[in-house]
């Protein structure tokens, strides 16, 4: 074994460039695969971790106390299939005023609980303490971080209820309530519903949860169950933003895996094949066939293990900021988002195993060769298909250096096919990235393609210590419309509401005025124009099981209105739906707009309009609207990172192929130089040997990239791209992409080609 190790170590030291290439290819491949697998696992792991820590409720149910008593509701927790239950807790809905704790006005679901603990839905206290006496309330804080101790003690006065003092802020992964009070306080609120929290023995699917809930409530009077929310709805809401990235991250991960397998297999097997002469020498020195195989497996495993370890480390470091971007603004309770352990373990074990497997196949062939055969096999093939192709090409009008280069790939067809496949996947990646960039840029400019400037105007709020506007809501809109430079004005009111059948709060946007920009974002149906109409984004529709044409009931300020989903937005908040002023009038005619969007006429000066707004009413706060390009930036950045990685790996594969060809043909190069071939002709011949592979790879990669682009944009869960944003391919662009394969090939071949051009006849003869 010591002789094997010494021979392997000597081979690693002698072939420094080859060792470096193997290590670098494995490093880039490992980083690429780890990034793809990391985001896939992170999409669900943080939610599951936090949900289990807090013993989250698989189902949050509410019962009508006029139809079923609290005792009857309590008995449902002891039915077959129920693992644990909590409740019944009294539940009431308070109508909160505008800007309470910087939140929108609207309905607030309050539950009476004696403590935050229990067998189900253990509430995580963020600040302060639990409400234990009348007049106290704990608020569910729905955003990242904590509100800060300065907010404790805030007085809340809901319509028709006594003043409540905020004594704590907490978070519930079950989203079981918007706030909690003591049971004594809940009694004074006269609850009409009771809340039950269930954990079921089998919660694998939504269908199973519905079956279990039906079994648990079978003995209750008909109609007593008013709402039931599955935890799968919360899980989908949690990963809604990450879902936008998962399709293309998955695809890039698959591409990275394929390129890695091809290049690693090509590089490693080529290293063994090019070492056949060395294998023959080892056998002639007395190494057994098994020892020879062990030498070469060890030789390629050393750089592979080092490259894999460094690649795993880099992948974990890079994955952290990527995950923070992907999950920004998503509540994780007391759990933290991070990459799971198994992708790293898989890469650390799988990549070296792949290298060993790629080296084992040619090494076993060398195992069967005698010393003389191995030494002979180490020379470049001088007869066969490659030579015949070169002779046929010599009869064409191509320069001799070009015809010789074009015939070289046929001498090693297997190696050439692997190289071409890697180039094709590299072009696929470039094509996919180009298409994604075009689509995302068009998406970022949706509704703003006219080039006109837009200004957001906020109305001052007395509850925030600001001066109230001089004019009424309608008068403010007219004043903004009358100022010089204004073209269109849209007013918006935002309210927290409830959707009948769901315990989770939703946000309702109500618009009036000029809504052309908003209507341009509809991809299915039409913008809501009449009373009782609404539109929502794909994430909201998916989470609530709705589609265009379905009906839902909005509950706000003690009133409710039935709305029909008449349009699907290109994109929208996963917790918000949009409607119009006519619908708001049915629910709360006293609500006024607090935000206005002004589109200026072409050529109008933004700063001049802002000054005019401030002069008209100091209580109005205008700011230029900036495009929210977070998703565009994230997608383009991710795609660019993967493109660079895969392009580098593909170029390294070409580099390795050319390097091996040059090493095998040193004697041929010496002969060609001895009969007058110049260094420039040697460079042209070497580059030509892979340029054709690059062209063929481009022809294969472009259609694959177009198909991959369509698969990605059609399966982004939170965005529905219209067809106009998917048709991004044009002939000049496709022609440029065709050159991408040639560019990858030339970049990989240029350095070894220049090295071959500098070889002298004396160096070649000395090596021989």
Summed up, what is this model?
By secondary structure, this protein is of the alpha+beta class. Helix 9 runs antiparallel to helix 16 (413-444) and helix 22 (630-664) packs parallel to helix 26.
What secondary-structure arrangement, pairings included, does this model have?
Layout: H1 2-14, H2 16-42, H3 45-53, E1 59-64, H4 70-75, E2 82-96, E3 106-112, E4 124-128, E5 136-140, E6 155-156, E7 164-171, E8 179-181, H5 183-188, E9 193-200, H6 206-216, E10 225-230, H7 231-238, H8 240-243, H9 246-274, H10 276-284, H11 289-326, H12 341-368, H13 371-377, H14 385-394, H15 400-407, H16 413-444, E11 454-459, H17 473-482, E12 486-499, E13 505-513, H18 516-519, E14 522-525, E15 533-536, H19 538-543, E16 551-556, E17 559-569, E18 576-580, H20 581-587, E19 595-600, H21 606-616, E20 620-624, H22 630-664, H23 666-674, H24 679-713, H25 723-726, H26 731-757, H27 761-767
Parallel strand pairs: 3-8, 5-7, 13-18, 15-17
Antiparallel strand pairs: 1-9, 1-10, 2-3, 2-9, 4-7, 5-8, 6-7, 11-19, 11-20, 12-13, 12-16, 12-19, 14-17, 15-18, 16-17
């Amino acid at each position: 074994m010591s002789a094997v190790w010494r021979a392997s170590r000597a081979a690693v030291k002698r072939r420094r460039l080859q060792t470096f290439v193997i290590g670098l290819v494995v490093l880039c491949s490992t980083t690429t695969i780890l990034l793809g697998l990391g985001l896939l696992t992170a999409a669900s792991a943080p939610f599951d971790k936090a949900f289990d820590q807090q013993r989250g409720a698989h189902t949050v149910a509410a019962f009508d106390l006029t139809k079923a008593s609290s005792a009857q509701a309590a008995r449902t927790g002891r039915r077959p299939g129920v693992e644990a239950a909590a409740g019944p807790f009294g539940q009431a809905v308070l109508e909160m005023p505008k800007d309470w704790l910087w939140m929108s006005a609207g309905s607030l679901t309050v539950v009476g609980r004696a403590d935050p603990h229990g067998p189900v839905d253990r509430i995580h206290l963020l600040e302060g303490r639990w409400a234990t006496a009348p007049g106290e309330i704990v608020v569910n804080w729905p955003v990242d971080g904590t509100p800060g101790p300065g907010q404790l003690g805030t007085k809340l006065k809901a319509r028709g209820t006594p003043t409540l003092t905020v004594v704590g802020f907490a978070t519930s992964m079950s989203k079981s309530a918007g706030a909690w009070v003591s049971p004594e306080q809940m009694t004074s609120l006269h609850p009409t519903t009771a809340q039950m929290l269930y954990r079921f023995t089998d919660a694998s699917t939504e269908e199973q949860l519905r079956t279990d809930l039906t079994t648990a409530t079978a003995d209750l009077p008909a109609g007593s169950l008013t709402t039931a929310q599955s935890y799968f709805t919360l899980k989908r809401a949690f990963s809604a933003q990450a879902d936008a990235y998962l399709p293309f991250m998955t695809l890039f991960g698959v591409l990275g895996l394929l390129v890695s397998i091809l290049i690693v297999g090509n590089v490693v097997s080529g290293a063994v094949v090019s070492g056949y002469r060395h294998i023959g020498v080892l056998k002639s020195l007395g190494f057994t066939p098994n020892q020879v195989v062990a030498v070469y497996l060890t030789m390629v495993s050393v750089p592979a293990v080092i490259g894999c370890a460094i690649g795993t480390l880099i992948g974990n470091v890079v994955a952290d900021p990527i995950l923070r971007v992907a999950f920004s603004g998503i509540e994780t309770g007391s759990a933290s988002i991070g990459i799971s352990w198994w992708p790293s373990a898989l890469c650390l074990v799988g990549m070296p195993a792949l290298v060993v497997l790629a080296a084992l196949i040619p090494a076993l062939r060398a195992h069967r060769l005698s010393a003389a055969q191995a030494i002979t096999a180490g020379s470049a093939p001088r007869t066969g298909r490659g030579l015949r192709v070169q002779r046929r090409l010599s009869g064409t009008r191509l320069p001799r250096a070009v015809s010789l280069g074009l015939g070289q790939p046929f001498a090693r067809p297997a190696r050439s096919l692997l190289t071409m496949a890697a180039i094709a996947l590299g072009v696929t990646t470039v094509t996919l990235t180009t298409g994604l960039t075009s689509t995302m840029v068009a998406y970022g400019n949706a509704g703003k393609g006219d080039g006109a400037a837009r200004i957001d105007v906020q109305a001052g709020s007395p509850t925030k210590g600001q001066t109230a506007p001089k004019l009424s809501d309608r008068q403010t809109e007219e004043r903004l419309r009358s100022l010089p430079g204004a073209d269109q004005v849209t007013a918006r009111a935002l309210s927290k509401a409830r959707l009948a059948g769901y315990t989770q709060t939703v946000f309702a946007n109500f618009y009036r005025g000029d809504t052309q920009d908003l209507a341009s974002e509809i991809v299915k149906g039409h913008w809501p124009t009449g009373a009782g109409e609404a539109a929502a984004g794909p994430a909201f529709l998916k989470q609530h099981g709705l589609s265009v044409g379905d009906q839902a009931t909005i509950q706000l300020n003690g009133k409710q209105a039935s709305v029909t989903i008449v349009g699907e937005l290109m994109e929208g908040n996963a917790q918000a739906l949009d409607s119009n002023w006519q619908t708001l009038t049915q629910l709360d005619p006293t609500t006024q707009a607090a935000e206005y969007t002004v589109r200026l006429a072409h050529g109008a000066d933004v700063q001049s309009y802002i000054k005019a707004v401030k002069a008209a009413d100091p209580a109005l706060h205008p700011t230029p609207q900036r495009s929210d390009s977070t998703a565009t930036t994230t997608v383009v950045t991710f795609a660019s990172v993967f493109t660079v990685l895969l392009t580098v790996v593909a170029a390294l594969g070409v580099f390795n192929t050319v390097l091996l060809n040059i090493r095998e043909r040193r004697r041929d190069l010496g002969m060609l130089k001895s009969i007058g071939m110049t260094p420039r002709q040697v460079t042209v011949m070497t580059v030509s040997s892979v340029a054709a592979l690059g062209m063929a790879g481009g022809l294969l990669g472009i259609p694959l990239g177009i198909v991959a682009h369509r698969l990605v944009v059609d399966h982004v869960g939170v965005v529905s791209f219209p067809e106009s944003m998917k048709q991004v391919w044009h002939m000049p662009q496709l022609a440029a992409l065709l050159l991408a394969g040639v560019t990858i090939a030339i970049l990989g071949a240029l350095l070894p080609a220049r090295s071959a051009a500098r070889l002298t006849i004396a160096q070649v003869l000395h090596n021989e």
